[in-house]
Design a protein that fits this description.
The protein is an alpha/beta fold. It is built from 12 helices and 12 strands. It has a domain of 204 residues: NAD(P)-binding Rossmann-like Domain (Rossmann fold, 3-Layer(aba) Sandwich), CATH 3.40.50. The protein has a 7-stranded parallel β-sheet with strand order 3-2-1-4-5-6-10, sandwiched between helices. The chain has a 3-stranded mixed β-sheet with strand order 7-9-11. Strands 8-12 form a two-stranded parallel sheet. α6 crosses α10. The radius of gyration is 19 Å and the shape is globular. The mean pLDDT is 95. It binds nicotinamide-adenine-dinucleotide and 2'deoxy-thymidine-5'-diphospho-alpha-D-glucose. The site of 2'deoxy-thymidine-5'-diphospho-alpha-D-glucose (DAU) has 19 residues, from α6 and β8.
Length: 339
């Protein structure tokens, strides 16, 4: 099988490439990535020389470049991870989220139609459903995105489903909860907490710190995506949840305890505008139709994750240059925290 993976230099995309190359050694992967601040070639160390792997630096919004890649490689399947993915950045600068997450996806959908791709798997998020106080979101829940990020992802989901209905494109969607694990850029909560704690730096905790996320270890998500790619039904949406709901304050305390760092590092700061209170996903459908359930408890996943970041301090240091650095200098000073 020949698969185009977009956004394969980011967090989940790179984990997925490692997962697929290990599980299906005969598959060929073509990784298309623009290498934004979040894309990191270091994440693919070890696979980049394999004959079954190709990397192409390109923007999914560039239809000429995309046509060239599709024409040359003629993929059987496309798995689309490429996106602007950080909610705080979408609040400060929404335009690029609309461009990549909506226009970019439309470009890939057009190419997939033109080159008769057999499966288009679009990677979406539980954030499209918005916040839920009690109970869990199913795939039939109404979409009520809160941030420019989640609104752009909801728009992309609607485009994917429209291409299934209107043009018969064989596409399907996964919506996962919050991932954590190796190679996650340290702007996201868990790697940010680990990174700051390792440096004895203040950890900004938004609002009252009681917001809840359902954490999934990234390898579990990769396994689920692989199953959906092979066994999922065209036109369907599959929720992928970790079934590990935790309050943010609980997550910070667990990490600080494991690193033997003091609670005085926690700095309560102004809340994120439009901050969703709780995410919770029903995974009954993927269990029933695909036979997948998550394997990793939060306790074992966070242990592995902390160990990975402690053992990869050069990787962490390398992420703290360029765009990351300038964004966070402004961001931290806005929060009243010095770097
Ligand atoms: P990430 O920000 O770590 O990686 C995104 C990758 O996409 C980067 O390598 C970046 O260079 C690339 N990219 C960005 N714009 C591009 C463009 N225009 N053309 C080509 N490449 C481009 O993101 P992630 O956390 O790995 O998320 C991957 C996907 O999964 C996203 O679609 C995101 O919405 C979704 N998702 C993420 C989570 C999570 O917890 N991280 C949860 C649910 C869904
Ligand atoms: O739910 C899936 C989504 O999870 C993905 O679609 C997004 O791409 C991904 O970024 C993530 O979004 P969140 O907004 O939930 O993740 P983030 O890591 O930014 O924040 C997790 C929680 O921690 C959230 O309640 C906000 C809080 N937080 C975050 C940061 C960065 C803090 O309290 N302090 C922080 O510094």
């Amino acid at each position: 099988m020949k698969i185009i993976v977009t956004g394969g230099c980011g967090f989940i995309g790179s984990n997925f490439i490692h997962y697929v190359m290990h599980k299906h050694p005969s598959y060929h992967i073509v990784n298309i990535d623009k290498l934004t601040y979040a894309g990191n070639l270091e994440n693919l160390k070890g696979v980049e020389r394999k004959s079954t792997y190709r990397f192409i630096k390109a923007d999914i919004c560039n239809s000429i470049a995309m046509k060239k890649v599709f024409d040359h490689y003629r993929p059987h399947a496309v798995v689309n991870f490429a996106a602007e993915s950080h909610v705080d950045r979408s609040i400060s600068a929404p335009a690029v989220f609309v461009k990549t997450n909506v226009l970019g996806v439309s470009t890939l959908l057009n190419c997939s139609l033109e080159y008769s791709v057999q499966k288009f798997l679009h990677i979406s998020t539980d954030e499209v459903y918005g916040s839920i106080q009690r109970g869990k979101f199913t795939e039939k829940s109404v979409l009520e995105p809160s941030s420019p990020y989640s609104a752009s992802k909801a728009a992309a989901d609607a485009m994917v489903l429209a291409y299934v209905k209107t043009y018969g494109l064989p596409a399907l969607i996964t919506r996962s909860s919050n991932n954590y694990g190796p190679f996650q850029f340290p702007e996201k909560f868990i790697p940010l907490v680990i990174n700051n704690a390792l440096k004895d730096k203040k950890i900004p905790l938004y609002g009252d710190g009681r917001n809840i996320r359902d954490w999934i270890y990234v390898e579990d998500n990769c396994e689920a995506i692989d199953h959906v790619l092979h066994k999922g039904r065209i036109g369907e949406i599959y929720n992928i949840g970790g079934q590990n709901e935790r309050e943010n304050i609980f997550v910070i305390r667990a990490i600080l305890k494991s690193l033997r760092k003091p609670a005085s590092l926690i700095a309560y700061v102004k809340d994120r505008p439009g901050h969703d209170r709780r995410y919770a996903l029903s995974i009954a459908k993927i269990k029933r139709h695909i036979g997948w359930t998550p394997r990793t408890s939060f306790e074992s996943g966070i242990k592995k994750t902390i160990h990975w970041y402690k053992s990869n301090t050069p990787w962490l240091r390398n992420t703290e240059t360029g765009a990351y650095r300038s964004f966070y200098t402004k961001y931290y000073s806005k929060m009243g925290l010095s770097e």
